[in-house]
Structures are given as structure tokens and as C-alpha cells.
Amino acid sequence: MTTDRRSPGTLGTVTVPIIDLSDFADGSAEQRATVGADVDRACREVGFFAVVGHGVPPDVLDRAHEAARAFFELPLEQRMSAAKTEPGAPYGYSPFEYEALNRSIGGDTTPDLKETFDVGPVDPPPRPLDEMVHPDERAVYAPNRWPAPMPELRRALEAYYRAMGALATTLMDVFAVALGLGDGAMSSFVDRHGSALRCAHYPPLDRPPPPGSMRAGAHTDYGTLTILRLDDEPGLQVEHRPGAWVDVEAPDGSLVVNLGDLMQRWSNDRWRSTMHRVVVPLDRHGERRLTMPFFHNANWDAVIECIVSDGERPRYEPVLAGAHLMAKFRSTVV
């Protein structure tokens, strides 16, 4: 008998659109335009797509995943040695049920059934911290916290962070072409990005969760884009239409990309920041899940104004990317 891996009410499964980035990096102007058009279509219709030919070495992906898994197997006392210094601090370990992502969109769900380890920029900030006037900017570039018992975690996650940052830069170049802005038009907005890498561990549960409980409540992401390597455990779902959820699948070796709120705002609602969540599939509450989303953000001081066509009116006022990010982030802390 086949075990049902879905949650109640799920409509089915969707394989997200697949984009071959090697056609963009090494292709002709015509091929680059074709990739841009394919990404534009995916961002209009779904807000998610998968990339192959992304150039991230498999060993970088594997070492980071193995190190993160080993970290979450440490005794709680050792994990807490790298705990966040205070509620709302961006980097370090957060124990089980620390946050509720649904609150970022005004919801009031119970805390998420997960624990996390968050990492910020791994290279020196664009200027010294004591020259940063705004405390939230200093928070974005705050030092990372690393567990003393696991020096290999830092090496693995810093390599992963840099690889994801490079891929995100390429994706922003694709976005510029997709939006008709031309090569490199977005580069100056993201060349000092303060992005974040999250290791999200959903431990096995000793009993089925209460009705309505989620591994990660329904939410949209905050920044420009998110890059995610799926593991073998199901649970990620996107809202196909209001109230209708579908499970997400992507080819082995691919990375899933979804848009954040800032990108929807930037594109003047041309593109979608899609609602998504992580559920506990039926009869699989005893299975663990580990994912590593990379949340890419624009430069702290980037002024994001709607990209509009002739005759089109902006739907949003200009916003500073950093202020937008931190307001969303702090709304989730339980």
C-alpha cells in the first residue's frame, strides 16, 4: 500500500517550470532573451521555477547539507552555545517553536514546528559597523554565531553562502533581461547585498501535530528571491489559487527559486511573490526534514521604485530595501 505523503486538502503536485541557466551564461543574445522570456512567464504565472545548469558544485551543496544535519544532531546545550543573543537578533540558533512565519502576513497561527540556524554575510561589510547609523543596518551585518564544537560547520556554510550569492547575482542579471531592462541593469542594486542563509530543521514528531499546526506557516518571502535545494522529504506547498495548495516537486540536481515581496513590489505586481508553506504530510510526522533556503536581498540602502511601462502607474511608493526587510523579519518572532 502506498503511503499518502500529502496533507489534507492538497489538490495535487506541480513540477515547477525548469530554466537552464547555462543557456544564459554561455548563450547568444537570442538565447539570453529566450531564457529571460521563460523566466518572465514563470514569474508572472507561478512565482516559482527550478534552475539547472546553475554551476554550483554538488560537493558544496552536499557538504553544507551534511554539516547542517550534524549540527542539529548535537545535544541541545551545544546547539544553544550558538543561540541568537536576543529576540529579533538575525543570526544564530533558534530552538523549536521560536517563530511563526504566518505572522509576517498578519496571521496568528501557532509557532512553527521547526528549529533553525541562520547565517548572515560571511565577508566584510561594505563599511565599518560603527559608521552605520541605523541599528537595523548594523544588525544585517552583525557577526555570525558559530558552535565551538563544530568548526566544519562554518567552513561548509560559508562556502555555500558564497555559491548562493554568486548564483543570485546571475539570477538578478536574468531578471533584468526578463523585465526588458537590459544586461546588468540591476547589478548596482545588489552588489553589496546583505543576504541570509537559513538551515531549517523539522525534527521528527512523536505524535501527529494538532490540527492546523505547520512546519512553517503560510507566508511569502521578504526580499528579492530565495534559492532552495529540496530534500527527499515532502512538505513544501505553494498556493496555486486562493485556498488551493499543491505540493512542489523539482528535478534532482536542480535548485528551486521563488520570488520575494520586494521583487513583486519592484516589478509593480507584474511578478508574483507566491504564498507557500511547509506542512506535515499525512502519516509522516515521524520523518525529519532539512532544507537550506538562501534569502537574497538588495543592498541595505537601495531605493526600490516600481519598474513601469509607458502609461503604467506605480502601485507602490519607493522603499528602502533594508527597512522593508527588517520590518518583515521582526514581525515573526514569537
Characterization of this structure:
The chain has helices spanning 22-25, 29-45, 58-72, 76-80, 135-140, 151-178, 187-190, 261-266, 321-330; strands at residues 12-15, 18-20, 48-52, 92-94, 115-119, 196-202, 216-219, 225-228, 236-241, 244-249, 255-259, 276-278, 289-291, 294-296, 303-304, 319-320. It is an alpha+beta fold. The strands form 3 sheets. Strands 2, 3, 4, 5, 6, 8, 11, 13 and 14 form a 9-stranded mixed sheet that branches. The protein has a 5-stranded mixed sheet with strand order 1-10-9-12-7, with no helix packed on it. Helix 2 crosses helix 6 and helix 3 crosses helix 6. The chain is globular, with a radius of gyration of 19 Å. The protein starts with 11 loop residues before the first strand and ends with a helix. The model is unreliable at 1-10 (pLDDT under 50).
Task: Give the SSE layout.
Layout: E1 12-15, E2 18-20, H1 22-25, H2 29-45, E3 48-52, H3 58-72, H4 76-80, E4 92-94, E5 115-119, H5 135-140, H6 151-178, H7 187-190, E6 196-202, E7 216-219, E8 225-228, E9 236-241, E10 244-249, E11 255-259, H8 261-266, E12 276-278, E13 289-291, E14 294-296, E15 303-304, E16 319-320, H9 321-330
Parallel strand pairs: 1-10, 2-3
Antiparallel strand pairs: 3-11, 4-5, 5-6, 6-13, 6-14, 7-12, 8-11, 8-14, 9-10, 9-12, 15-16
Helix pairs in contact: 2-6, 3-6
